[in-house]
Amino acid sequence: MRDSTGYLVFIGLTIIGLVTFTSGCASLPPHPDSLARASAGLAGANARPAFAAEPASTSRRSTMQGESDSEALAKQLANPVASLISVPFQLNHDRDIGPSDGDRTTLNIQPVIPISLTEDWNLISRTIVPIIDQHDVPTDGDDEFGIGDVLQSFFFSPVEPTASGWILGAGPALLLPTATDDTLGTEQFGLGPTGVALRQEGPWTYGALANHVWKIAGDDDRHDVSQTFLQPFLSYTTPSALTFTLNSESTYDWDADDLAVPLHLLATKVVDIGGQLVSVGGGIRYWAEEADNGPEGFGGRLIVTLLYPR
d(Cα 54, Cα 51) in Å, to the nearest integer? Predict the structure, then answer.
């Protein structure tokens, strides 16, 4: 087995182990100190805490509201611009790529860091760092392992939702040519707008995130970047902090007139592992529309998200 493949397989097996382990830990109450710190962070875009912090005299062994606290945290995680520090590790696998039916495994490291600008505004930093292992892509016998291009987004988001309950955020998206191999990236700098709009009603969260990135500099011999990304999403969170999500992560390449539409059905759950709040889960994806030389059929996704409520 190639060393690079072994690294990603090890990561994947670790994630699967965590999912399996936490299935037996799901009934554990959240760590009280972590939940107390979450009271400020869970105010997020809704501008109201989901629960109050424990008084200083409260016993460290006591819990606050049990499952309802985890449920509130799970719902905040479904909000892309919530005031919640999180570090998702998203492992994706796709196959039947290109004329040689290659395969690709991608680990996306996606830290989300909220910054309070004023009493009325937050700045949410969202970074996507892809680590890619692919075989027989783009042609038979080509194997690459390394870092892809980084996408850095900033969302300026009002602390309070609109009068009709919509949570909004908008700002710039920057594509950085950080790929360690020319087949793993664009070799171009890109810039464009990004935005998100969503509502949270009871257990439901629904909305969409979008961006468009144009080439602003880079290799003129490469295909010019002019790409629109659209991610509509619908989530349902149960009282036990189990969230079911249906979304699409569609990409349209304007220069190549090429559309890719993967559909995802996912399940995640917030649990406490040794005092660390974590969301774990996964699901399947199906390529309803394949790009030229892109993946086909079914793929898979596993997710482990470290949560740091403030």
Answer: 9
Residue 164 three-state SS: coil
pTM of the model: 0.78
Which domains can be identified in the chain, with CATH numbers?
Answer: 3-308 (2.40.160.40)
> For the segment 170-191, what is each residue's pLDDT rounded down to a tens digit?
999 999 999 999 999 999 999 9
Q: What are phi and psi of 29, to 5 degrees?
A: -70, 150
**DSSP 3-state of 11:** helix
Structure tokens at 182: 């020319």
- From residue 298, alpha-carbon distances to 132, 184, 232, 287 in Å are 18, 22, 19, 6
What confidence tens digit (pLDDT) does each residue in 237-255 have?
A: 999 999 999 999 999 999 9
Closest-CA residue to 107 (of 122, 87, 124): 87
Is 46 a residue whose pLDDT tops 70? no
